[in-house]
Amino acid sequence: MADDSLRSRLAAFVPRMIWSLLDRDGEGSRTKGCALFADVAGFTPLTESLAKIGKEGAEELTRILNDFFSAMVGIVHYEGGDVLRFGGDAMTVFFPAGISTSLRAALRMQEEALRFGTIETRGGTFTLGMKIGIARGPLLLGTVGDAQIGRDYFAAGRCLDRAADAEHHATRGQIALCPACAQRLPKGARGVEILADGFALIAEPHRAG
Asked: pLDDT tier at 79 (50, 70, 90 boundaries)?
């Protein structure tokens, strides 16, 4: 895709990790790193309340989500990560670096989420937070479809599923690590709880170095 202006417009919709594949039909790439799955806690009651208001409620919900996720995307990009997908009130991220980078980003995201803790809306007052899961492993990236009809990209790897599994272990404000990540934490690390199934919880968001 030689048109730089078109590439620039697509940048808002296509992960940076996919850009290099757009010119190579049918080719994929394989990389290793850490997947991060983040889910907004408190999103459902906010959505249900604003949906009753109609167009103004939908516009307010869009603004809140844009503000929330824009802050998170800024942190992800600063730490060298890439947003693979948004799904309603959740986002899937990949860091080609090690666990320390993804964990630092997660801690910063939880810290930033505190800023959105209490939100006043037309539908009432709501509390938002985040649950985050992190897992490490290989990731396969590629594109499917036909340039004349339509193309899409895909990201596949067990680390994506394991990051979602880890997120299910977390509650609002917590970060959960898959067993493989948990094993790489320093022994006796403060604020870390190792669960019976090997997952680890980091319960208190704090300022990451």
From this structure: very high
Dihedral class, residue 40 (left if φ above 0, else alpha if ψ from -120 to 50, else beta): beta
**Two tokens at 181?**
């990540």
How much is the pLDDT for 141?
A: 82
Domains and CATH numbers, the chain: 17-202 (3.30.70.1230)
Which tokens belong to 167?
């997120």
* Whether 70 contacts 12, CB under 8 Å: no
Output the pTM of the full model.
Answer: 0.84
CB 34, CB 134: distance < 8 Å: yes
Rounded distance, CA 72 to CA 55, Å?
A: 26
pLDDT at 208: 39
Q: Enumerate long-range contacts of 42-45, CB under 8 Å, 24 or more apart.
A: 42/126, 42/127, 42/128, 42/129, 42/172, 43/88, 43/89, 43/128, 44/89, 45/126
